[in-house]
Amino acid sequence: MNTIAIIRNSATKSSRRVLIGSSTTSSSLASPHPKCHRTLLTTANHFRIGSAKNFLYLPFSSLFHFRINSWQLGLVIKPDEDFSSIARVAYSLSVRNFSTSVENRVNNTNFERIYVQGGVNLKPHVVERVDEEEKSVPTIEKNSEGFVSVSVVEKARVEDSEAEREAWRLLKGAVVSYCGNPVGTVAANDPGDKTPLNYDQVFIRDFVPSALAFLLGGESEIVKNFLLHTLQLQSWEKTVDCYSPGQGLMPASFKVRTVALDGDNLEEVLDPDFGESAIGRVAPVDSGLWWIILLRAYGKLTGDYSLQERVDVQTGLKMILNLCLTDGFDMFPSLLVTDGSCMIDRRMGIHGHPLEIQALFYSALRCSREMLAANEGSSNLIRAINNRLSALSFHIREYYWVDMKKINEIYRYKTEEYSMDATNKFNIYPEQIPLWLMDWIPEEGGYLIGNLQPAHMDFRFFTLGNLWSIVSSLGTPRQNEAILNLIEAKWDDLGSHMPLKICYPALDNEEWRIITGSDPKNTPWSYHNGGSWPTLLWQFTLACIKMGRIELAKKAVALAEKRLPIDLWPEYYDTRTGKFIGKQSRLYQTWTISGFLTSKMLLKKPEMASMLFWEEDYELLEICVCALNKSGRRKCSRGAARSQILV
Ligand code: GLC
């Protein structure tokens, strides 16, 4: 085992598993709030040591003279002992041997991470590095990559437009605190909304544009807190009825609740939702991927790489990766998921291998490749990441891409081919090509389809997946260019009165009935079914800056700037052209506000954008060509990679 987790299980009868911040206990070194320490509540009165699936149960009293002999450290933990000193020992013993398997941690004698959560006299919930290095975390001004200093940002704010100033005010008003520290932003802050459902929670995916706005604005504390607190929630015991979802899963959202514990003491608790309360019980597959993407962005934009180097952060990162890379029955390198496992978190016929998940998966793998500490223990995982990246980009570039030429090929496909050399590998019946597509596809341009399964191509255009393919270079440079050409050529359909449509076209009639299950929220051209989502602006801006199409982004942002403040920052717009505020749209939706701010800041400082996107990686292409070559299909060389893998 590479982890020692010491988790206090309180004697409370509460069955809630929540992270608690007490306002009555003494201060702790690791806690950012002086009067706050955190406790993990479960039902039994004993400690657990080990990874969540392999706990070693010890009587409560054993804490007081607990000798970790099995790890041969001779480390004695006493009730009055300052855990920071243990952290120091732990960190100095840090072994560069990260395991690729969560399961085998218990048997491993390496001591790589101490992970302490609450307890009587137990101070930090996660032991922080408290060495000199930690104290000298580079400030924003120190960033060698040219990050603007706080004072410059403040000056820039003076030059902000009216809409930007309002957006900043609203974004700050949406901040959620835990134990006196900012940890995220609520999904929506609509004072008129009497039934906020879960919109009063901090959603992982929704927080990303808020985090970027804060980082670009020179405020990094909230992002660091968010990353560390959500990391805590990752190792939660979670159950949906009698089933426990996989280790490493990140919640869709969390809420800070105030609860009365004993006597008059009020405690703050972090209450995560892993999908067990979510409408439709959808799996938040994208949460972990966004968490990884944000972790990298934090390092890039602040210059503080010590966060990603921490042992607990490295372990959390590996847990997400292990969950994503676990073998299953899949025949494809793309990630197999259930319906509604991403931004579209309702039934919309996107189960299987939806593009959005693949693009986020690809980005998260690229981020991890940069952030994982390379050592003996991580070499297998890094190899697995490289192989998956190559296979995934080949798969998407080759099989998801459509343009005039490709549609014409599909139109003439032969079917029922049984052989290794089949042209129509997925047995797509040409009759599947929808009539709308024949008229819609422009001469110039193309896009990546929404989903690919045996005998099934979902030809709908999904904006987030296509934009994120550009940003991460999942598409080839030519494909990325062509996607923006298509968006420009089809502006009346995708941008129109409010950029941008979440997908195009909408499902209607029988298709709507069968595919959405007659969902009244997802009627044609509303919400996820062809609604327009201003939050997508920031991803569009980023993609445009990357591809040198800044004017296109400016046009979209200007359009949004005119309407959003007047319309009170809605979550989404309805109708074919995005004319009306969405039927059930929340107002003062935070990711609308922060998406707008992030777009504006990226446009003002386009050089910052380069820290948030990726260029083509020829090394990965080469791995891919080599792999194909082994199967006797293609020549193996860098040149072949450039010319043959669709560059
Ligand atoms: C809706 C969206 C989802 C978002 C949530 C909170 O459910 O579909 O993507 O995270 O609202 O804003």
UniProtKB/TrEMBL annotation:
Pfam families linked to this entry: Glyco_hydro_100 (PF12899)
Coiled-coil segments: none
Catalytic activity entry: Hydrolysis of terminal non-reducing beta-D-fructofuranoside residues in beta-D-fructofuranosides
EC number: 3.2.1.26
GO molecular function: endo-alpha-N-acetylgalactosaminidase activity; sucrose alpha-glucosidase activity
Listed GO biological process terms: sucrose catabolic process
Alphabetical keyword list: Carbohydrate metabolism, Glycosidase, Hydrolase
SUPFAM superfamilies: Six-hairpin glycosidases (SSF48208)
Gene Ontology cellular component annotations, sorted alphabetically: mitochondrion
Record carries keyword Glycoprotein: no
Entry's family note: Belongs to the glycosyl hydrolase 100 family.
Function: Invertase that cleaves sucrose into glucose and fructose.
Protein's name according to its UniProt entry: Alkaline/neutral invertase
